[in-house]
Amino acid sequence: METADVPTLTRLLLVLLLLGALGYGAIYSLANLVEPREREIEIRVKKDGFGR
């Protein structure tokens, strides 16, 4: 009994499509389901480079 092997190009495209779908799903869920926290940020800037 012979088994039908999937051609290599088709297998490659299916794997790339699956990885792309997983990546898209991860980015979509991060953008829509995770709420960022707001906080104060204070940065000190040196005055040496200003006014030259």
Task: Quickly list its features.
single chain, elongated, mainly alpha, 52 residues, 1 helix
Classification by helices and strands = mainly alpha
- Let me know the average pLDDT: 87
User: What fraction, in percent, of the residue positions are helical?
Assistant: 40-55%
List the secondary-structure elements in sequence, H or E: H
Quote the beta fraction.
under 5%
Instruction: Give the overall shape, derived from the CA principal axes.
Output: elongated
N- to C-terminal distance: 83 Å
Using DSSP, what is the number of strands? 0
Low-confidence stretches at least 5 residues in length (pLDDT < 50)? Answer: none
Total number of helices: 1
Largest sheet: none
Radius of gyration: 25 Å
Describe this structure in words.
The structure is a single chain. With 52 residues, the chain is mostly helical. The N and C termini lie far apart (83 Å). The model has no long low-confidence stretch (mean pLDDT 87).
